[in-house]
Amino acid sequence: QVQLVESGGGLVQPGDSLKLSCAASRFARDYYAIGWFRQAPGKERERVSCLSSRDASPYYADSVKGRFTISRDNAQNTVYLQMNSLKPEDTATYYCNLRQLGRVYWGQGTQVTVSS
Predict the structure, then answer these.
(1) Cα separation of 24 and 3, whole Å?
(2) What is the largest CA-CA distance in the chain?
């Protein structure tokens, strides 16, 4: 069983930045994909950004391209989401997602609220 622990959410104003962290208890050696999803009230969960252990190019949703950056620290089994120029429409619960060895894991979610 893999555990994901998220942190970094909060209440910020439009234009501010936040950095989310997701620490995994372990990554698979061969292949894994890890990233962030978000879900706003009354909306479906959407994929925000992700990267895999094999691909050099991460995925970004169109709505966050140029503002969000995903990165990882393999030594710490941690993935980050740097969120800049935040907008009110970025308000959501953000979930870390890990896929490896045929299983899918979710973090508990961290709330990001962007409001003036």
Answers:
(1) 6
(2) 44
The CA distance from 116 to 13, in Å, is 5
Helix (H, G, I), strand (E, B) or coil at 115: coil
| Phi and psi angles of residue 25, each rounded to the nearest 5 degrees, phi first | -65, -30
Instruction: With beta carbons less than 8 A apart as the criterion, state whether 47 and 35 touch.
Output: yes
Token readout for 99 is 């896929």
pLDDT of residue 50 exceeding 90: yes
Closest CA to 8 of 106, 76, 114, 109: 109
CA 1-56-85 angle, 5° bins: 90
Which residue shows structure tokens 């890990």? 98
Q: In 3-state terms, what secondary structure has residue 63? A: coil
Cα separation, 80 vs 83, whole angstroms: 10
The pLDDT tens digits for 78-93 are: 999 999 999 999 999 9
